[in-house]
């Protein structure tokens, strides 16, 4: 018998300012950042020594020692040590997926409260030794006698000492994510100027949001940083137009460092709860997580773009909720690249694509662009992979709350491996 | 931050050296520790004329488990133990001639006062006197108590409380405060109580239990100390500071089981956001401590508008705007609320290079005085606390000479600690302090500046 479900409430969030790779957080580990971010959330909502239902978080780039990253962060935080935790990883979808997991357990009545989060560092990234050297070292470790050990050591060759540095590339294609996005941008004929315009709007929206205090209860400073250091309030299309393309090849290349997200360090958390738990603890309910959907595309052999999976997830979720793409007050489409946002929107507007690929009688249609990423998104803040979902959920929940009850918001996040996560929030 | 000179002067060798050279010997002050008795020894109570408070004072001390001795005779033969407090009920004063009996009581009693002792005088306010002679006699106590403060050694203090007819119920809280370690650095002060409905004494250990207290500027220094003392006394603290100080603020909040609210109190919508926060999260606020303050020092002739305006905005206008918003908004400020505003010694004495700061801090004193009657109507109070030289990160950055001189020119010959300011604020925040309203209490060790 299925138990009746309820919608999980989003109480609020906390993140540290995001920092470009090898800048303010160069010496900070994932655990440092996630712990500080949880502690900021604890301070905001008075959760000291409280046992929550669960803390779910993850990182995309992870050291082997961080096998229990989230639980270790909880143990280092001011939460009760009796709060259980586990790690998840779905590339750039990690943060939102974590929120969905926590929300689902709340919906089922299995927990009353929980924290969803994500963290990533590309500065303190793990280095791995090559498989050859790794095998030598393992046999060295297993060797019981001195001669055996010397024999194992003798197998080491200078070439094996070069470490393997993690790359932002798809294992199955060897292409950087940006190069994949460039292929899609070309397919959908996304122009340079519209990408730059989107990037400028993101910077300006986020700078304005900071200036009006919007982030006062969403961000806690960390290691001397009080705002995202990728943010360029004075960004302009003229300035961006001078940048040289970094992804794609030749004449038609449009994607630059200005309209693509940089490698970023940071962490984010979201506090979710049942309405009852929020009320008992005197905490606000900003919005509810109504529904969510994931999808994946075959970008290796199937002829679909690497970052186009959210396009497929969306109609499934809309149909299940009896909604159209236009039934939302605010849209949060993760700006991995400006071209990704624009390709996504174009695909939903395209009758042939919607019919052929999505199997829809009519296209999902267009949205009011003035309701898109109204307080800035990843092009401005930067994109610490697993931390982006938490940033977006908390930011959208607050936007909806400010707009008043009954407002609806949509989230769309693309992820490596040809995956996508979408979700509906409602105030 | 340790006081190296005080530690030296209290060491074996240091005691000898400072005695022989006639150098100041700052005492280790008696500060409040949870669980300690109000006084470390007996008290002696005397009267000048036919006072009306002696009985109430005796009962109060007995209730605290303190032995009350009979007055010391003129030849100095007291009954046994040296007193830890000398209390004079001077409500019977009619003429300056009656002051002789005050002298007769105080002189031998104060001589026997033990270290970190307390001298406390209670009298009717001069403003209520029936004749010029009576007013003179009452006002004379002001000079008397301030002089005793300067004569006392070893960390002892002297203070005066004016108690008008009908305000007898209001004395318990100030008497307890001035005798206790909470007032360690409050010396040579004169406060007036007023008639008020005073609730039955709360839990002595947790006098602020169940209360919600907003403390601005709570990320560090005096503000962090206030937050800690409020939490120690049982309050849930909403620690407020600018967003840029949010990491320090979170540490403070997490350290005391409070909550952090990142808010620039000078923002246009700050009062409204604070109102909404306390209503939504706590169903209103019981205690508001306006502690946030900044300095932008320059001589007046060199001071630009930005320096002037920013100091005024943070130190004065924000206190006004937030208090007004809390008063105006239904259900934001509890009826029996306590508002405490941090002023400064500079606001009383003035300070070279601080025209903006001193003006803002003097403004605070005027503000609480003007608001007090309105607060009294609803059973609330509003008071100011004016710290003197308080040892903080800020004073640690002062040049050695300036710092040493600044910290010694007071009767206790040492700088105060942030906790001293915090204890005074926490006392004013108690429900029992209902009769203390519109006052400015200096926490300055009886500083020579502006005294």
Structural features, described:
- The complex is a heterodimer of chains A (427) and B (451).
- With 427 residues, chain A is of the alpha+beta class.
- Helix content of chain A is 35%, strand content 16%.
- The longest helix of chain A is centred in the middle third of the chain and has 20 residues, at 192-211.
- In chain B, strands 9-8-7-10-11-12-13 form a seven-stranded parallel sheet, with helices on both faces. Chain B has a six-stranded parallel sheet with strand order 2-1-3-4-5-6, with helices on both faces.
- In chain B, helix 7 (221-232) links the parallel strand 7 and strand 8 (236-241).
- In chain B, helix 10 (305-328) runs parallel beside helix 12.
- Classes of the chains: A alpha+beta (427), B alpha/beta (451).
- The A-B interface holds A 36, 39-40, 42-46, 48-49, 78, 213, 215-217, 219-222, 226, 282-284 and B 236, 243-247, 249-251, 253-254, 257-264, 267, 269, 273, 280-283.
Please supply descriptive tags for the structure shown above.
heterodimer, A: 427 residues, alpha+beta, 10-stranded mixed β-sheet, 14 helices, 12 strands, globular, B: 451 residues, alpha/beta, 7-stranded parallel β-sheet, 6-stranded parallel β-sheet, 15 helices, 40% helix
Biggest interface found: A-B, 23 and 26 residues
Q: What is the radius of gyration of chain A?
A: 22 Å
Largest sheet of chain B: 7 strands, parallel
Give start-end ranges of low-pLDDT stretches of chain B. none
Strand order of the largest sheet of chain B: 9-8-7-10-11-12-13
Q: How far apart are the termini of chain A?
A: 30 Å
